[in-house]
Amino acid sequence: MADSLEDLKARVRALKADFEAALGPAGDATGLQSVRDRFLGRKAGAVTALLKSLGGLADDARREAGRELNELKDDLEAKLEAAKTSLEAKAGALRLERESLDVTLPGRVPARGRRHPLVSTREALEDVFLSMGYEVYDGPEVEDDFHCFEALNMPPDHPARDMQDTFYVDVPGPSDLLLRTHTSSGQIRYMLENAHPPEVRIICPGKVYRRDNDITHSPMFQQIEGLVVGRGISVSDLKGTIEAFLHRLFGEKYPVRFRCSYFPYTEPSVEADLSCIVCDGKGCRVCKQTGWIEILGSGMVDPAVFEKVNEHLGRVVYDPEEVTGFAFGLGIDRVAMIRHGIDDIRLFYGGDLRFLEQFRG
Ligand code: DAH
After folding, report:
1. How far is the CA of 329 from the centre of ligand 1 (A)?
2. Which tens digits make up the pLDDT trace of 247-296?
3. Ligand 1 centre from 51 Cα, in Å?
4. Residue of 26, 150, 241, 340 with fewest CB within 10 Å of its CB?
5. 361, 208, 245, 337: CA torsion to nearest 10
6. Please, where are the H alpha helices in 172-253?
């Protein structure tokens, strides 16, 4: 209870001082709200408490005191409002400073990808054959024994299978699934799927798998198979095609030579060598002092392969009396190694950017 006007005025002064002391440290909206609740709250605020204490004063004094307290209220309201405005201005300035953007700074240039050397080599090879009218055929990597070996004239006990140490796929169902060891299986698939007319001119690029791993062999590598079938296709077509493609790829100045070889699916079989592009045929480490680099295997399609295809089709489509053909197979990795002078095939598959960034591709 205020005993007198004087007493009330003293209490108002004390309250003002308390208010100033509380307002000073209030640093945000929540702080301001609690100062407001404490002093101007309707039920428990300090000003309300003072108002309630006027009961004991005489009428005149009460009126005067009422005016005094209303002024006090207005004063506190105004100070709270001013504090709020100043806090907001400060926060705004801070935000502006934090979010400021220097548009004159240079931008961040995103890293640009580039062709992997095996991709650009495959594309260069495909371009050569596409320009000669070949079609690109894509065969599956998971194959079966028939397409990978049997139809290519390699029955189960054939020793040529030993040259291609095979990964077999162990799944319920067909028991002869494997990862193709060469793209030659693409020859068989294409002939079975395109049984009319017996004219073929395809390349079949893709991944192949063998249980091999050293600096010139990777368990997964890539090949391009070629197959041409038609009436009157001869060894000279084979030689001319391979010579033309090697000249397009490496340049005309490197001679190509053919050596007799053996593959179960071609007869006769040949291997093609390119005069060493590193030493110009003089003999070096890359060509193992021979002056020649082995590039591919090829030959005239063995009639036994046509017969296997016909047998599978249940009718004679590729009649060995009517059509002949040639086939070839080469390693894309090997060609890329020769083109770029790389001596470890594993670099292609290591994903090391220091290696890959050297290719403009
Ligand atoms: N398939 C053989 C290999 O992987 C390459 C090959 C040789 C393919 C002679 C052919 C060919 O089509 O006629 O080593």
Report:
1. 4
2. 999 999 999 999 999 999 999 999 999 999 988 999 988 888 999 999 99
3. 106
4. 340
5. 50
6. 185-193, 235-250
